[in-house]
Please model this.
Amino acid sequence: MSDPITIEITEVPVVDSLVDSSVVDSSVVDSSVVDSSVVDSSVVDSSVVDSSVVDSSVVDSPVVDSSVVVKIPPITIEIIESPPNPIIELMKQHPKIALLIGLNYVDYPEITLKNRINGINNAKQILKNAYGFTDENILVLIEPSRENVLTMLNTIIGSSNLVSELIIYYSGYGNGIMKTDVGFCAESGVIDNLSKQIMPADFVEIGQDEFTSILNNSCCKTACIMDMCPYANDEMLLKWGADINNHVKVITLCESDSHNTNKNQLIQLMLKELRF
Model:
């Protein structure tokens, strides 16, 4: 917060026309200088005006009398600045940032996932051991709401000009996914089912168009790995990839929670494929 600024306005000239007659002591008014020819009779009670004492030669348009001033105490203006965003400050200090989002949906026992939080912890270790990340530049969201996910995404993407590389890893439910590809090891390509709906902990989905429009604003090399469990489809096993633009790449793994793919190896293969 900046220091307060004090502005001193010590004297203000008084304009004759702005003087409230109700506060003027008539005993100090020289009646010899009042000219009745310039007095608006519609606003003056003629019963109290002596026209014989009005001298029109000294009455003119309102002027500023520099000899009459009003004393005003100094005015202090306090400029309030918003506190710095800690995420943005972090991005100023590191050339690359990772965001890991993991959901087991612990508040919904009937659909709780088993290994998504473990997958996030494994991904964190991979980034630290093989890609030069530290605890400081890895951001982790566990069981986030839609608002928390969007706030974090918009913050890091909106400030992506501060870093050279950005990795986003999502592990949780993906709604609306259909098996349109030919298998788990399908060739990367632009297909319709890029990410579909991300399902935060409050189950207020983030749709494909909304998500990809955010990613499209990234200013740095960006890899987005979507480790998604298809909602209400236990047998699906699918992987595909797509380019958002020249420097934003997305790979989506669609795997039901009953499968036990080696995620450590898979994440490294994905990052290698994305040339990280």
User: Anything to note?
Assistant: Residues 17-21, 31-36, 178-195 have pLDDT under 50 and may be disordered. The first helix runs from residue 86 to 93. The two ends are 40 Å apart (CA to CA). The CA atoms of residues 64 and 146 lie 63 Å apart.
